[in-house]
Amino acid sequence: MPQNSPYDSIAGMYHALWFDWYLPAAMPALETLVFSQVPRGSAMLDVCCGSGHVTKELVTRGYRVTGVDNSADLIALARQQLPEAEFVVQDVCALTLPARYDAAISTFDSLNHILTLEELARAFRQICSALHHGAIFVFDMNLHEAYTLDLKQWAVDIHDNSVGMVRGQYDPVTQRARTELMWFSRSAADRNCWQQKHSIVEQCCYPREDILDSLAAAGFRDIQSFMAAELGVDPDLGYGRMFVTCHR
What we know:
Layout: H1 11-18, H2 22-35, E1 43-47, H3 53-60, E2 64-69, H4 72-81, E3 86-89, E4 101-106, H5 117-129, E5 131-142, H6 144-147, E6 155-158, E7 162-171, E8 176-186, E9 194-204, H7 208-218, E10 221-227, H8 235-238, E11 241-247
Parallel strand pairs: 1-2, 1-4, 2-3, 4-5
Antiparallel strand pairs: 5-11, 6-7, 7-8, 8-9, 10-11
């Protein structure tokens, strides 16, 4: 069982703020790289699936989906939303799955949460070992340009029963990004009482060449990379974002 994830304490905030943001913006890329390439009914591994935002689309399109994430609280939300899918709480760097899959996907720059190149390479090896020969793996990651948008200012999302606050900062020397999240939710028992939760999530920015070299070393082939704009991704999501497709 992995250690507690920084997303555990703010799982509800994550699910509420981003449930309908990433997928519509990224859909042109996913249509081109995933949905047009992987037949319905295929066994799909959703790596770092979070609370199941993209998993839901995979299920809707007829894939047999296994979602994996290291946050037990996010997985609990995903199970509530999608009882027809299988979910596993595991660290992607130490995957031990009994099945082999026809395809794998990882979205919303999830792999940037892996904080060293050695661990990223290990994650690629584990994903590769979970796939059938010839299976496709598609993912996206943020490059340097994406992190330059973090201007240390709070973005605030206000609803009747919750307030979410997010701000990011990026150190180009260490290539580390930190996102601070605060979540205020109204108590169901006492509407005058609010609960606060707080978390800091780290990401690492990797050069494109290091990502692609690590894929090749892990055993992947036919490696191709595309900037999100080339695939028609909405600029608000796509700036500095790279999509990669490869095969075992």
